[in-house]
Specification:
Number of strands: 5
Number of helices: 4
Largest sheet: 5 strands, mixed
Oligomer: single chain
Helix content: 25-40%
Low-confidence stretches: none
Strand content: 15-25%
Structural class: alpha+beta
Order of helices and strands: HHEEHEHEE
Distance between the termini: 47 Å
Radius of gyration: 15 Å
Strand order of the largest sheet: 2-1-3-4-5
C-alpha cells in the first residue's frame, strides 16, 4: 500500500511541473506531458492544451472529469478559454481507463464538433490524443483530424 501511495504521489508531483515553457511538435510531445498524469486514473478526464501560432503552450486545462466509460465535454467552454488566451491552436487530450487505445464513436464525434466550432473562430484543432496506460493514439496520426 505504501509503494502504491508513493507511485501515486510521484505521478501527481510530476503532473504539477509547469509546462508553460514547452512547445508541442508532435503527438509524442503531448503524450510525454499527459501519460504520467492520466495513465493510472480510474476515471476519464478530458484536457485541452491551448497553443500560440508557434506551438508554445499557453495553458493546459482540465475541462471535464467523468466516470469509468465517459465524460461530458462542452465545446463552448473550450472555445471561450481559447478566445480569452488568444490561442490559435488547441489539442484535446483524454484518457481511457479501460486501457483500450482505439477511439469510440463518441470520441470521433467530439473531435468533429470541436474542430468545426473552432474553425469558425479561426482556431485550429491540431490533434486529439487518447492516453491508455503507457500508450497514446493520435487522431491526426490516423488521419481523423483534417489537415490544416
Amino acid at each position: 500500500a505504501r509503494l502504491i501511495a508513493l507511485f501515486e504521489l510521484s505521478a501527481r508531483i510530476q503532473s504539477e511541473k509547469p509546462i508553460h515553457k514547452g512547445t508541442i511538435v508532435s503527438s509524442r510531445s503531448v503524450a510525454d506531458i499527459f501519460i504520467p498524469m492520466l495513465k493510472n486514473l480510474p476515471h476519464e478526464e478530458c484536457w485541452v492544451l491551448y497553443l500560440n501560432n508557434s506551438g508554445k503552450i499557453l495553458e493546459r486545462q482540465r475541462i471535464s472529469q467523468g466516470g469509468v466509460q465517459a465524460t461530458v465535454v462542452d465545446c463552448r467552454l473550450i472555445l471561450r478559454r481559447a478566445l480569452e488566451l488568444l490561442a490559435v491552436q488547441i489539442v484535446l487530450v483524454h484518457n481511457h481507463p479501460s486501457g483500450t487505445i482505439e477511439p469510440s464513436r463518441q470520441d470521433i464525434d467530439l473531435t468533429e464538433r470541436v474542430a468545426q466550432a473552432a474553425k469558425l473562430l479561426d482556431i485550429s484543432l491540431l490533434d486529439h490524443v487518447i492516453i491508455a496506460r503507457d500508450a497514446h493514439y493520435s487522431f491526426r496520426g490516423h488521419n481523423l483530424v483534417l489537415p490544416l
